[in-house]
Write a structure and sequence with these properties.
The protein contains nine helices and eight strands. It is of the alpha/beta class. The relative contact order is 0.16. Keywords: Pyridoxal phosphate.
Length: 226
Amino acid sequence: MGIIQNIEKLKAKIPEEVLLLAVSKTKPLEDLEEAYKAGIRDFGENKVQELTTKFESFHDDVRWHLIGHLQTNKVKYLVDKVYLIHSLDSINLLHEIEKNFKKANKIANTLIQINIGRETSKSGILEEDLEKFILEIEKCTNVSVKGIMVIIPVGDEESNRRYFKKTKEIFDGLKKNEYKNIQMNILSMGMTHDYVTAIEEGSNLVRIGTGIFGERNYNLGGVNNE
């Protein structure tokens, strides 16, 4: 099945209010063009260099999402190019984003990445550190948090559902509060193998790579977050 057919099949399963983000890391522009023809305008990249290269060479109406771990020394390259940073995962990174976007007089739209499975191999804020993190976000002038992103531990449907439920509880808890820089509009959870469960548990943005573009070489792709 081709890319366009894959997208049509996904769109038939995904409710209209859920955003389908095409994870295009390591994929050539020809593949992205196929997805674009099928109506995709949101593309997710893991690496800053790949995102900026594709930004320069692809359609102007595309919204680029940075979904991989973001190193502080790469933040400056994202100004004016990234639509949404999914991986705000530390106070150091927060300060670096604030500094670079302030310099350009721009607002960085971000999601807080939560390490819901408490995995040492994954980035993200632990639940008990959220309060302190939020206090730092509220001091910023050029960082806007739009919601939460998670990459859950590999497991069966039951454990997936448990992690998604827990994330949605945190999301709903934060939504009840009034903040200056934080709104809980986007809940980015769910990938090719578990997006149906994620949507059932409240996700409104799913990150699909393999389900659109087919299998990839994971040696090139870094962390599996699609």
